């Protein structure tokens, strides 16, 4: 899990694919935080993303650093507790003006994640489950 955290922090921007009906939806993200032994991402309860995850929490995360790419198959679980939100806001203080004190702040942890690191050299991906 630490390797996934480090990679996503290094890339800065990664993409999450959700499903809306029978249509895939992909959007960029930039938050990743370790809290209580779980990886968390942040969004807003007011965005379509939250509605899609509520309907179907199964998502895929993808990131590329120029040499290696990461795909994470996981289920997102909403855990927008004050403690989880504070941890995220402390990790990303630039978000505080937009989200602090707002009831729309949403944080999700990755459950049953299978991460695969790929590159152009190795035939098989490195697989990490958490």
Explain how this protein is built.
With 130 residues, the protein is of the alpha+beta class. It has one domain: Pnp Oxidase, Chain A (Roll). The protein has helices at residues 2-11, 48-55, 82-91, 96-99, and strands at residues 14-20, 23-29, 33-35, 38-44, 58-64, 68-78, 105-119, 126-129. The longest helix is centred in the N-terminal third of the chain and has 10 residues, at 2-11. It starts with a helix and ends with a strand. The model has no long low-confidence stretch (mean pLDDT 96).
What labels would you give this structure?
single chain, 130 residues, alpha+beta, Pnp Oxidase, Chain A, 8 strands, 25% helix
Oligomer: single chain
Annotated CATH architecture: Roll
Work out the number of β strands: 8
CATH homologous superfamily descriptor: Electron Transport, Fmn-binding Protein, Chain A
Major sheet, described briefly? 8 strands, antiparallel
Mean pLDDT: 96
Helical content class = 10-25%
Q: How many distinct helices?
A: 4
Structural class label: alpha+beta
Strand content: over 45%
Highest CATH level, the class: Mainly Beta
Low-pLDDT runs of 5+ residues are none
Q: Could you say which overall geometry the principal axes of the C-alpha atoms support?
A: globular
Helix/strand order, N-terminal first: HEEEEHEEHHEE
From the alpha carbons, calculate the radius of gyration and give it in angstroms.
15 Å
Number of domains: 1
CATH topology: Pnp Oxidase, Chain A
The separation of the N and C termini measures 6 Å
